[in-house]
Design brief:
Elements (H helix, E strand, L loop, with lengths): L1 H21 L8 E6 L2 E5 L3 E23 L4 E7 L7 E4 L7 E7 L6 E15 L3 E4 L1 E9 L8 E5 L2 E5 L17 H7 L6 E5 L2 E3 L5 E5 L5 E8 L5 H9 L9 E4 L5 E5 L7 E11 L2 E4 L3 E6 L2 H53 L1
Parallel strand pairs: 1-10, 2-11, 13-20
Antiparallel strand pairs: 1-3, 3-6, 3-7, 3-9, 4-7, 5-6, 8-11, 12-14, 14-17, 15-16, 15-18, 18-19, 18-20
Helix pairs in contact: 3-4
């Protein structure tokens, strides 16, 4: 009996330690790969320089890699790695075709932690008019934790809008005060709507501000869609927050100078939203360059979501362990009861 009690105690201690270890949830990471500026307006034949940046504020990183792809209509002029956070290149970005593969390492135990760390920059030339979004494929950002944990959560790319160079026919003093001379010239030959100013990051209790330019006296459809992953905790918390809503799509009108502006409600659900401007006219919508807007949540909500996600991971495992433990225990008990019953029956038959 004493040995059985010791074995049962060891078993329960082992189960307790296993359950306790399940609550030690691996930390979550959320690094960002992006090219900047998000929107560039140039004329055909002109060049623009874009920077490839990485952001990691949750944990240090020590390796980045990916492929930058240029759309047809853009010519790669040069690649520069000056002032890069990368000290050792496994594959240095170089001039070539429309695809630019790269892979590098940040040397040192501390790695890189911060916002908009420069990986490298490229200079491109617009060969024709149109809207040209870049692409980042095979992106990877690894944590400097000894395990090479993937941290990449969000990818943001630039869009170049190229137009024919024309001389503005309006006086600068008559233009909207929010437009630069280059934007005023651009409105004379605009082919797609462009978001020029917007709130990149806002709190969930603040409003999103979006401003842009399109053809004068036209209608712009701001199409919004959530692109961030929603965990079980996010969905459960949002279910009970009926007063908050996602960043909805909307229609706005431009003024006589082609300027449009939108201010969203101040009760938004957290997440990353992709906003694309479409100019409405003649039965079709012409799309402009998209931008990404991040709506952040309060710290207490972050903690609540973290706890719910941890429980959502732990509870099914606990139930599974209990089932695995219960089945053999119940089987042994059932066999034991059957053997007792057979013994009683045998004793009764011998007495008879």
């Amino acid at each position: 009996m004493v040995r059985m009690e010791k074995k049962s105690k060891k078993k329960y201690v082992g189960i307790f330690i296993l359950l306790l270890s399940l609550f030690i949830v691996a930390p979550s990471y959320a690094s960002i790969f992006e090219t900047a500026p998000s929107v560039v307006q140039i004329h055909t034949g002109e060049t623009a320089t874009l920077s490839v940046l990485v952001t990691s504020t949750d944990a240090p990183i020590n390796a980045v890699s990916g492929v930058i792809k240029l759309p047809q209509g853009l010519q790669l002029i040069s690649v520069a790695t000056d002032d890069s956070i990368i000290q050792f290149w496994l594959q240095k970005p170089e001039l070539g075709a429309s695809a630019i593969p790269f892979s590098g390492i940040v040397i040192g135990q501390n790695g890189f932690t911060g916002t908009k760390g420069k990986v490298f920059s490229i200079t491109v030339k617009a060969q024709k008019t149109g809207s040209f979004p870049l692409q980042i494929s095979q992106g990877s950002v690894l944590a400097a934790n000894g395990a090479g944990t993937e941290t990449l959560n969000t990818v943001k790319v630039s869009t170049l809008v190229a137009s024919e160079k024309k001389v503005a026919t309006i006086q600068l003093q008559d233009a909207a005060p929010s437009l630069t001379p280059e934007q005023i010239a651009y409105t004379q030959s605009i082919s797609v709507p462009v978001i020029t100013n917007y709130s990149e990051t806002v709190a969930s209790d603040q409003s999103v501000h979006i401003q842009g330019i399109a053809n004068p006296n036209s209608t712009v459809h701001l199409q919004s869609s959530a692109i961030s992953f929603s965990s079980i905790g996010d969905r459960l918390v949002n279910f009970f927050r009926t007063k908050k809503s996602k960043l909805d799509s909307t229609y706005v009108a431009t003024d006589t100078k082609g300027v449009f502006e939108y201010v969203s409600p101040s009760s938004l659900l957290a997440g990353v939203y992709n906003v694309t401007p479409f100019e409405v006219g003649q039965g079709k919508e012409v799309a402009g360059a998209s931008v990404h807007i991040a709506v952040t949540e309060q710290l207490i909500i972050h903690i609540l979501v973290y706890i719910i996600n941890a429980l959502a991971l732990v509870i099914p495992i606990v139930v599974l362990i209990m089932i695995i433990w219960f089945i053999p225990w119940y089987g042994k008990r059932f066999i034991h009861l059957l053997s007792i019953r057979f013994k009683k029956k045998e004793i009764q038959e011998e007495k008879m």
